[in-house]
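Protein details
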Amino acid sequence: MSAAIAAGHPATVEAGLQVLHEGGSAADVAVAASLASCVAETLMTGVLGGGHAIYYEAATGQAENLDFFVGMPGLGAGRREVDLLELDVPFGAELIHYAVGIASCGVPGVAAGLEALWQRHGRLEWTRLVEPALRLARAGAELTPAHASCLQMLAPVMTMNEGARIYSPEGTLLPAGSRVEQPGLVRALEFVAEEGAASAYTGSISTALLELMEERGGLVTAQDLEAYEVEWSDPVEAAYLGTRFLTRAGLSGLPETLPRVPRLAGLEESDRALRLARSLDGPASDRLGDTTNITIVDLLGNGLVGERLRADDEPGPWLRRLPARARPAPEQHARRGRPDPRRAQARRPDGQHDGSECRPARRRPRARDRRGRRDAPS
């Protein structure tokens, strides 16, 4: 069987291909490509974003939906009135209303979601999957024409505060072909490699995030981060022209939209476009925003479709607060099914306990399964 990957940036695809050529599963490829997209597609997604994925296992014919969307913040804190910056951003001929600022940030899900996917369906070592994104972050990613066009539209949002240093470093917006460099992103990915997803919830990244929330009046709390859970569930089925589509309920709108799409085969191009536009012109077409997607099929026929988005409308500030070094952590991130060295007592060469203990484990975000199974944090 042939393998394939499609994504929103050539560098995202390249990161996935590297892992695919090393025998990685569709889940491994998704982790590597998604982390690379947090470098190459920063207008659409980021390490502190959220998303969804559907994973198909060829051997069993079973599919699972993984929800790692951003969470509503505010646990453990009193009700507060916050100020948001109101902006009207032009998308073509249409104005889209934005309410942005630190108080619009949600509880991040990308790190927990990617780790949950890898824990259940991955083959390669976690640190190997972070390497392509790290290399890309050190070199800087090229701004493609499509992303440059998006930057023109999103400039009022993306150039707020520290974002101006990233997307308009000399006072003008970066043109297509420029290198996008985010100070601190290399360090953030190093923490993801060393500490795993826990870095964003109880580790080095979470410390920087919470400091930013405290300084600028954000709503995300330590309790929010510690309580965050991804969720596995059965996908929603939708039938169309004799084909079974698997999707998620809620924001996707696909189960409601597919039945309205007419047969288009055999029609002239202009007629196809008009009929398709009419079918999409309904309640489900009132989308909340755009995102970036990845589609993967590995050599065994396992497949994955995933989407991610940003949860931090204001790019850059938390990266500047990252510590120079990671918190004390074990040498290797724990792998599913293997003993976790963070829970073992230190032993002398003769096999006897020396009275000390290994450094405590960071609490990993939990995964909940609607079908009754719960993956406990390790």
